[in-house]
Specification:
Blueprint (H helix, E strand, L loop, with lengths): L34 H11 L4 H22 L10 H21 L25 E4 L7 E4 L2 H22 L5 H28 L10 H23 L7 H22 L2 H7 L6 H26 L3 H20 L1 H5 L3 H4 L3 H32 L40 H38 L4 H5 L8 H13 L1 H44 L8 H4 L1 H30 L1 H7 L3 H7 L13 H33 L2 H11 L3 H10 L2 H31 L4 H80 L11
Antiparallel strand pairs: 1-2
Length: 787
């Protein structure tokens, strides 16, 4: 129906028409048989009495999807139950989440992962086809269940907008209902844009482009702002200036939507649509701008600023004329000729009425000014801009949880799922500790060799007078990567990643703690009336995960501090590495040809041990890499499920899973022992070598120079390696722990907020009922006595 730019009563018998738009509706032209692939998977994978229940459940849910997609074709019929359609959509969305939690769902038409384990070839492959929301002639097929969830969200947003469109908005309650409907649609689209679309890793349909989602979301907010204006209009306590700001808020949102529609992707996609979206948005933007200045003129009239009133009315008239000039193009291109769009008719009538009101008041204002006031009319350029007041916001969408009571949930017992998650985490922690242990062992080698000035002392006695090629090649590699600037940049990135991780951790922990405090306060305020499950009992798992992540971050922060200290400590030797080759060669203390000695057997043996130590550092890292790859390939839940069907206990299964890493750990133990044997003997070998060569002060200076150069090279290399690992750690902790945990906590807090509102409504109604009952009871005489 018409937004009420002016507070004019409806004419008797006038047909109500609507200027608002809905989110484009998607249809399902091809019905996916969801039952057949699921039933095949269930029968091939499971045994026992639960299979029959699961098969029946899969069949039932398939029929419900058919009913849901079929009901979409009746949306535009006035008698269709839109709330029932939304309930069907929510139920189906929960079902999809349940499928994800339990089954292996393929993301593409082709097979994948068949070599990983026996269950990999038994995936559920579903095909989903939907029409485009802007052009029903276009269709898109996807095999990704995340894409299907996005399609359902889009459909729910559309149905929600249809609910808002159906409401006549003839009283305050109806306006409020329409406002909530459009804000709810915007909230669903906002969730799609920020949360659901990033989950999709496969190709997406064109109407799910982020810019198009922003366009439709902003249009819904603009229409919600129209409802806000309609709610404010009858309020005589509000000044006309406030009304002008609220009207300009609607214009501001329509302008933002229009700007988005003019963007490259949106413009290309809207060209496929039969309805003139861009012109509609531009027309609404100008109408609301004109309405805003019209109400501002009423404010100046009340303040008896006659000249300003005329100037503002002139501006309002100029703007509405620009809007009226768009009406013919809106009817062009076959849009208006091919089909009578109610919104176009209503837009034109609204603009005509507004223009007529402005012209009428402007004429009267000019006549009064000429006869009575003789006020100076300021130039239009001097009229102040109206500050938009946007009060409509998207309503946060609470994602429906997976159906925990479905027959699918018992196919893999909760204990098994919990144990699988715990085992996987324990294995990750063990490997992380092994890697940290290996890094400590590598540092032990470096410190030992540095204390003995090795291999610098050996290299100082090389036959050639310059720097050995083995050192020069490492120096060249360091310089090619950027030297100190490269290290400093990575260190900044690591510290920034640390800050970001702590920020996300504190935000997550803070929102959870705030929810706990709010719940405790409500419990104290309402006492026995507050029967909701305590948050403290529901957040045990969240608290445990936060505690684990906090431990990881604290250990990482200590490691980062060590790296920063090493960068400062080794600054001088690291700067030496960055000198040009010719400068380094000049700095090498030279010795006479006679002073140079042939390599002794002791030197050869010492060099052999040094080479072995370098191989040990490399081998340890490769072993850990292979173990981590094994962990990625390990299907813990699958093995637990297989063992459970064979009657094997979970503890035995855990032992089997953990034992798969024994070969890697045995190799690491052998490497550790070999390292210790070499380090235990290297002191004696170094002393034997020093005794086998002559003493020469110049050779000692040469040895000290090579020691400093080696120390700088080692500092560059170890810092670079550790900083890369630090960046990878923070990337992993964000993607695998903090981001999912943050989303889970956010969902929990939103769900608890909805629960709180429901309980508060129940308590309020109970108190009101009790108060009404008490009021009806007969009252005794004053003082309570009997006369």
């Amino acid at each position: 129906r018409h937004p009420r730019f002016l507070h004019v009563p409806e004419k008797a018998g006038r047909k109500v028409r609507r200027t608002m738009l809905t989110v484009g509706l998607k249809y399902c032209p091809e019905q996916t048989n969801m039952a057949k692939p699921l039933i095949g998977y269930i029968k091939a994978t499971y045994r026992g009495k639960n299979v029959e229940e699961a098969v029946a459940f899969a069949t039932k849910k398939h029929k419900e999807r058919l009913e849901f997609t079929s009901s979409l074709s009746t949306i535009q019929k006035k008698k269709s139950d839109l709330n029932a359609v939304i309930a069907q959509g929510y139920s189906y969305y929960s079902y999809l989440r349940g499928l994800q939690a339990r089954f292996r769902i393929a993301k593409s038409k082709a097979g994948w992962g068949v070599t990983l384990n026996p269950f990999a070839s038994k995936v559920v492959r579903l095909q989903f086809t939907w029409t485009d929301s802007f052009n029903a002639a276009l269709t898109f097929t996807s095999y990704d269940i995340e894409h299907e969830k996005a399609s359902i969200l889009y459909t729910l947003a559309s149905v929600q907008s249809y609910i808002g469109l159906r409401i006549r908005r003839e009283n305050a309650e109806e306006i409020k209902q329409a406002l909530h409907a459009f804000q709810g649609a915007a909230g669903m689209l906002d969730f799609m844009e920020t949360t659901q679309i990033p989950r999709i890793t496969t190709p997406k349909s064109g109407d799910m482009h982020p810019k198009l989602l922003q366009l439709v979301k902003t249009t819904m907010i603009a229409q919600a702002q129209e409802c806000v204006f309609e709610a404010c209009l009858p309020n005589s306590k509000l000044s006309k200036a406030v009304l002008a700001s609220v009207a300009m808020g609607a214009a501001d949102r329509f302008k933002h939507a229009y700007d988005l529609a003019c963007g490259f992707h949106a413009n290309q996609w809207l060209a496929k649509c039969r309805y003139p979206w861009k012109l509609h948005l531009q027309h609404k933007m100008l109408c609301w701008q004109s309405a805003a200045y019209y109400h501002l003129s009423r404010d100046t009239m009340e303040r008896e600023e006659w000249g300003e009133e005329i100037a503002i009315l002139n501006k309002a008239l100029a703007i509405i004329k620009r809007a009226r000039a768009l009406e013919k193009p809106m009817r062009g291109g076959g849009w208006g000729q091919a089909k009578k769009y109610v919104a176009l008719d209503s837009n034109e009538e609204t603009a005509r009425n507004l223009e007529a009101s402005i012209v009428k008041r402007l004429k009267k204002a000019n006549e009064e000014n000429e006869i009575m006031y003789h006020a100076t009319v300021p130039k239009e350029s001097t009229i102040k801009e109206i500050e938009p007041k946007v009060l409509a916001k998207p309503v946060a969408f609470a994602e429906p949880p997976a159906d925990a009571k479905s027959p699918f949930s018992v196919l893999v017992p909760a204990k098994t799922q919990e144990m699988a998650s715990r085992i996987k985490q324990e294995e990750k922690d063990v490997l992380a500790n092994k890697r940290a242990h290996g890094e400590g062992k590598a540092e032990e080698i470096r410190e030992k060799l540095q204390s003995l000035n090795l291999p610098a002392a050996l290299e100082a006695r090389e036959g050639k007078g310059g720097i050995p090629e083995s050192i020069l090649s490492r120096v060249a590699a360091i310089q090619a990567k950027g030297g100190m600037e490269h290290i400093d940049n990575m260190l900044k990135q690591v510290l920034a990643a640390q800050d970001k991780a702590w920020e996300l951790f504190n935000a997550t922990k803070g929102s959870l703690e705030q929810e706990l405090r709010d719940d405790e306060k409500l419990k104290n305020d309402f006492g026995g009336r507050w029967t909701r499950a305590p948050s403290k009992e529901l957040t045990v798992d969240f608290s445990g995960q936060l505690s684990n992540v906090e431990g990881y971050l604290k250990r990482a922060a200590r490691a980062d501090e060590k790296l920063s200290n090493k960068r400062k400590k080794e600054a001088e030797s690291m700067e030496l590495v960055l000198l040009p080759k010719t400068t380094l060669e000049q700095k090498v203390p030279q010795v006479s040809v006679e002073a140079k000695e042939p390599e002794t057997p002791e030197a050869t043996e010492l060099k052999t041990d040094l080479a072995k130590l370098n191989q040990i550092i490399e081998a340890r890292g490769k072993i850990i890499d292979l173990a981590e790859k094994k962990l990625e390939e390990q299907e813990v839940e699958t093995l637990l499920l297989q063992d459970e069907q064979k009657g094997v206990s979970i503890e035995e299964s855990k032992t089997t899973l953990v034992s798969q890493f024994d070969p890697y750990f045995e190799k690491l133990n052998k490497v550790d022992k070999l390292q210790q044997d070499i380090l235990d003997a290297i002191d004696a070998k170094n002393e034997a070598w020093k005794k086998s060569v002559s003493s020469n002060p110049k050779m000692a200076a040469r040895s000290a120079f090579f020691g400093q150069l080696n120390s700088g090279v080692e500092a560059h290399e170890s810092l670079a390696t550790n900083l890369v690992q630090g960046l990878r750690f923070y990337g992993d902790v964000m993607s695998e722990y903090l981001n999912p945990l943050r989303q889970q906590v956010r969902d929990f807090v939103v769900a608890r907020e909805h629960e709180k509102k429901m309980y508060m409504d129940q308590i309020t109604r109970a108190i009101a009922t009790q108060t009404g009952t008490d009021a009806k009871k007969p009252q005794g005489p004053p003082g309570g006595g009997v006369g």
